[in-house]
Amino acid sequence: MNEIEELNLLFDKKPAEDILRYFLSKYGKKIALASSLSIEDQVLTDMILKIDVNVKIFTLDTGRLPYETYKLIDETNNFYDSKIDVLFPNSNLVEGMIKEKGMNLFYNSIEDRKLCCYNRKVEPLKRALKDLDAWICGLRKEQSITRESINVVEPDKNNNILKINPIINWTESEVWDYIRKNNVPYNNLYHKNYKSIGCAPCTREIKEGEDSRSGRWWWENPETKECGLHIKQ
Ligand code: SF4
Predict the structure, then answer these.
(1) Is the C-beta atom of 215 inside 6 A of ligand 1?
(2) Scanning 19, 170, 191, 211, which has the fewest C-beta atoms within 10 Å of its C-beta?
(3) How many C-beta atoms surround the C-beta of residue 227 within 10 A?
(4) Are 16 and 166 in contact (CB under 8 A)?
């Protein structure tokens, strides 16, 4: 059994706070939460800042986020007296992409959509992770078929570090229970039938009974619906 398998055996059934305490203590300044401001990442923000207010939390501003998400960044910082780092894409990459493919290239093809996600999300993420040993994410298995086989601890081979998913086994109702019990700030779009919130042109509200990721890149098949940040390796 390798080290990651041993860690998963140890942490699979452990409370998220215990998982966080272990890895925050183990990696110190070399671990960070990558927050998309989702309800899941807001739960982790709340837990982390209650453990240690100095843990690094960052978010990727793609330049195409909904107004409500920008508002939530400020609300979260005011609520916790925190300073979430907001990272931007490389302007040369985005300017070149738009010049060649247009403002809304993501509707052209899966390749163009993935190019936009790469330039606006994956490349800035790589920069953010390059000095870290581990990053924390709010993924949950039940969010989509692309996430069903993800474990608490995953190797991130692209970035050569560990990815920690403390609430991977949580249900959506467990997330909401935590949010309400702890008065955690969250995105107002959840009140408008949005279930998974990304960039404004690539996210829409869903209908009753649809799975939570169906409002993301709704013109694509479920198997392709990842932006490149969370590909199982
Ligand atoms: S979600 Fe849409 S707008 Fe945002 S980076 Fe990906 S393709 Fe571009």
Answers:
(1) no
(2) 191
(3) 23
(4) yes
Looking at ligand 1, which residue's alpha carbon is closest to its atom 6? 117
CATH of the domain at 20: 3.40.50.620
Place of tokens 């692309």: 146
11 burial level (CB within 10 Å; 0-12, 13-18, 19+): buried
- Choice from 227, 229, 230, 231 to test ligand 1 binding pocket (greatest atom count within 8 A of CB): 227
Query: What's the domain count of the chain?
Result: 1
pLDDT attached to residue 215: 87
- Alpha carbon 140 to its chain's center: 10
- Distance (angstroms) between ligand 1 centre and the Cα of 27 equals 31
What is the structure's pLDDT at 211?
A: 79
Residues of the chain with pLDDT under 70: 223-233
Whether residue 227 lies inside any domain: the answer is no
Containing structural domain, residue 44: 3-193
Distance between start and end Cα atoms, the chain: 18
Position 67 in a domain: yes
How many CA atoms, within 13 angstroms, populate the side-chain half-sphere of residue 120? 23
Distances in whole angstroms, Cα of residue 30 to Cα of each of 56, 97, 116, 162, 176: 9, 32, 28, 11, 29
User: Could you tell me if residue 198 is inside a domain?
Assistant: no
Question: How far, in Å, is the centroid of ligand 1 from the Cα of 106?
Answer: 7
Q: pLDDT tens digits for 103-154? A: 999 999 999 999 999 999 999 999 999 999 999 999 999 877 777 889 999 9
Question: Could you tell me if residue 202 is inside a domain?
Answer: no
